């Protein structure tokens, strides 16, 4: 096995010239980013602040039952499963694979493996009868649910390994969990969770996936900070395995060598694909030999990397994953270099400290004679209506949870997209959006955790 030093290793194993990018990791995903005030604006256009969405008496689309998958021979299961991922010849349709009704099932923990002093990889066993429901694309995530300290807590974690199935049709789901300072769920997972435990795991969700139909000759670049590496591990493994001519380049930023998650796995990938995988480790609190591999990031340093090391004109697809400041800085810099927005995929990682736990909806009292909004929602083919006082400024998700505790949600912060629904009647205002694509907004989809009624009656459909 090759030496595990953190050099900026280019294709062919040669040490690249000095370059730098950083997003140190304090607690969860990030530490010292030297970000100018101008980059503090929220990402656009996929992110919208107070988006107005209207649907006046629009007919509700029929909720057709999801067709059952035809049984496959066990010998063909693995091949067919991999073909439905990045660059597969028989790739699943984006709508079928990326957006489906989120459901929880209890899965057994197969392994808890330490990655660093503050991070673990948790692997769940997926029985054959649930394998289709847990089929996923590299880059997607699952939500985990547990009762901790008297409260139900849900946290979303990215899947960190490429899809695979055993001959008997069973599979596994692996996620990386970094302990956040003050984070109840992540601390419990790092210290208490063990093999043999059962945990509620939601079916895979998310759109942080490749849009490339074929990978031959493609150049994919990813920029990650801290635990933002987790979805990129699955993407890198799949991109490199699916084609003999694809190239993957990773800029991975941490505080120090001890904070690097999946250090051994990245080195093994480099050993396996020495000419097609380029790794650039950047440390913010540990001195590197190359000046640009040390210290804090700013627009000038990132621009230098793009001018000298990566060359954006050769890149077919970009993936950005980490804290808001890093993602925003990278998006701004790529835009300034002329990179089309549609070539850039990004996902925000946040810590789980000081999180609001929606559980069954915060209590809201409806007083007699008070003006209310009528919120109708459809879930699993059943429609329910709840009255929401105008004075409560209640989100659609909170109102729905008061009468249907099984309404899907995970982060409740506008990041994961689990609570997505389509407005079929009325007007709503959406405060934050870090999950929906522009085309989804145009079709009337909203994040119900961030959406508030602005008309007397609003109808949303979780089934479409």
TrEMBL record:
GO terms for biological process: phenylacetate catabolic process. InterPro entries: 2Fe-2S_ferredoxin-like_sf, 2Fe-2S_ferredoxin-type, 2Fe2S_fd_BS, Beta-grasp_dom_sf, Cbr1-like_FAD-bd_dom, FAD-bd_FR_type, Flavoprot_Pyr_Nucl_cyt_Rdtase, FNR_nucleotide-bd. The keyword Metal-binding applies. Residues 102-211 form the FAD-binding FR-type domain. Residues 32-61 have a biased composition (Low complexity). Residues 373-464 form the 2Fe-2S ferredoxin-type domain. The keyword Plastid does not apply. GO terms for molecular function: 2 iron, 2 sulfur cluster binding; flavin adenine dinucleotide binding; metal ion binding; oxidoreductase activity. It comes from the Bacteria. Residues 1-76 are annotated as: Disordered. Its cofactor is FAD. This is Ring-1,2-phenylacetyl-CoA epoxidase subunit PaaE. It comes from Agromyces terreus.
């Amino acid at each position: 096995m090759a030496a595990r030093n953190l050099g900026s290793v280019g294709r062919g194993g040669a040490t690249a010239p000095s370059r730098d990018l950083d997003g140190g990791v304090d607690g969860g995903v990030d530490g010292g980013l030297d970000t100018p005030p101008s980059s503090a604006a929220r990402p656009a256009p996929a992110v919208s602040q107070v988006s107005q969405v209207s649907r006046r008496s629009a007919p509700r689309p029929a909720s057709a039952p999801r067709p059952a998958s035809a049984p496959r021979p066990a010998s063909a299961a693995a091949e067919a499963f991999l073909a439905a991922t990045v660059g597969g010849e028989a790739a699943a349709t984006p709508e079928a694979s990326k957006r489906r009704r989120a459901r929880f099932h209890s899965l057994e923990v197969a392994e808890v493996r330490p990655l660093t002093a503050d991070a673990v990889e948790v692997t769940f066993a997926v029985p054959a009868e649930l394998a289709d429901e847990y089929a996923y694309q590299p880059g997607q995530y699952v939500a985990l649910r547990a009762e901790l300290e008297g409260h139900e807590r849900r946290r979303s974690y990215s899947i960190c390994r490429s899809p695979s199935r055993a001959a008997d049709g069973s599979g596994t789901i692996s996620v990386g969990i970094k302990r956040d300072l003050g984070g109840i769920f992540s601390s419990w997972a790092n210290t208490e969770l063990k093999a043999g435990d059962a945990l509620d795991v939601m079916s895979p969700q998310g759109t942080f996936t490749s849009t490339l139909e074929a990978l031959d000759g493609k150049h994919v670049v990813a920029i990650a900070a801290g635990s933002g590496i987790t979805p990129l591990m699955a993407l890198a493994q799949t991109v490199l395995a699916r084609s003999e001519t694809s190239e993957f380049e990773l800029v991975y930023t941490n505080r120090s060598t001890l904070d690097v998650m999946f250090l051994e796995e990245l080195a093994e990938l480099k050993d396996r694909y020495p000419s097609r995988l380029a790794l650039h480790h950047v440390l913010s609190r540990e001195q590197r030999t190359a000046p640009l591999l040390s210290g804090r990031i700013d627009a000038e340093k990132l621009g230098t990397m793009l001018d000298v090391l990566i060359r954006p004109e050769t890149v077919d697809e970009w993936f950005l994953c980490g804290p808001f400041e890093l993602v925003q800085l990278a998006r701004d810099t790529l835009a300034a270099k002329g990179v089309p927005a549609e070539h850039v995929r990004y996902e925000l990682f946040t810590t789980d400290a000081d999180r609001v736990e929606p559980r069954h909806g915060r209590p809201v009292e409806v007083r007699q004679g008070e003006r209310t909004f009528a919120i109708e929602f459809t879930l699993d083919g059943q429609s329910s209506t709840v009255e929401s006082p105008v004075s409560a400024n209640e989100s659609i998700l909170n109102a729905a949870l008061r009468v249907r505790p099984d309404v899907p949600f995970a982060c409740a912060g506008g990041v994961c997209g689990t609570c997505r629904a389509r407005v079929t009647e009325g007007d709503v205002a959406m405060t934050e959006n870090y999950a929906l694509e522009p085309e989804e907004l145009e079709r009337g989809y909203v994040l119900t955790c961030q959406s508030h009624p602005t008309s007397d009656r609003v109808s949303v459909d979780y089934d479409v």
